[in-house]
């Protein structure tokens, strides 16, 4: 009689973790003289745990770092408590996806505790900016999980890596177009590359033209312009432009 006993979370099995650890092997083979590797943490935590096992076996001097969200730092809490922390409610699961879940067992937690050198948490704003950076400079579309590793560097959470040879796991691009559009718009706003303003001018095409000329001299792009006449509380024959 052959009995197969699965762990409470299949993503915690040795076979599953070994498969995820192949990313660590590929990084080691493709990037010589690595000083540090950054992986997303949280969620199943299997990629971090499995890759850490592979990398530390090949070169114990390589620093392995995990990154999770400040909104639900469950891995840091679990490592501190010595057991998986209780799952926290995530108000933005659509944005964070699998990285916001909690389903890691004893194998993942023990590997992470023994082999991962550091776990840091980043804000949602840092993740959004990282998604924008990857899209602008690498032409790579990623979701929050894919960008969260870069977010640790963008946020300045790892100053000790300056001048080091570092690899970041860009591991997920599961983002729909509508969400991607929202993320890009929010990131541009965070960096003050998109702004909005309103002012009251005379209801004359000449004054509107002067306003657009000022914006043109600053090489600003006008994404949207509206004129409000009915509910303006200023003098008659004026218009609020916003």
Walk me through the structure.
The chain is α/β, with parallel strands linked by helices and 242 residues long. It folds into 2 domains: 10-190, Rossmann fold (3-Layer(aba) Sandwich), CATH 3.40.50.1100; 199-241, no CATH class. The protein has helices at 14-20, 22-30, 46-58, 74-81, 93-96, 106-115, 124-137, 144-154, 177-190, 205-217; strands at 36-40, 63-69, 118-122, 166-168, 199-202, 227-228, 238-241. A 4-stranded parallel β-sheet has the order 3-2-1-4, with helices on both faces. It comes from Bambusicola thoracicus (Chinese bamboo-partridge). One of its GO terms (molecular function) is L-serine ammonia-lyase activity. Its cofactor is pyridoxal 5'-phosphate.
Tell me the name of the CATH class of the largest domain: Alpha Beta
Q: How many β-strand runs?
A: 7
Structural Rg: 24 Å
**Number of domain modules:** 2
Large-scale geometry: elongated
Class per helix and strand makeup = alpha/beta
Helix content class: 40-55%
Number of helices: 10
User: What name is given to the CATH topology of the largest domain?
Assistant: Rossmann fold
Residues in β-strands, percent: 5-15%
Write the layout of secondary structure elements.
Blueprint: H1 14-20, H2 22-30, E1 36-40, H3 46-58, E2 63-69, H4 74-81, H5 93-96, H6 106-115, E3 118-122, H7 124-137, H8 144-154, E4 166-168, H9 177-190, E5 199-202, H10 205-217, E6 227-228, E7 238-241
Parallel strand pairs: 1-2, 1-4, 2-3
Antiparallel strand pairs: 5-7, 6-7
List keywords for this structure.
single chain, 242 residues, alpha/beta, Rossmann fold, 2 domains, 3-stranded antiparallel beta sheet, 10 helices, 43% helix, elongated, disordered N terminus
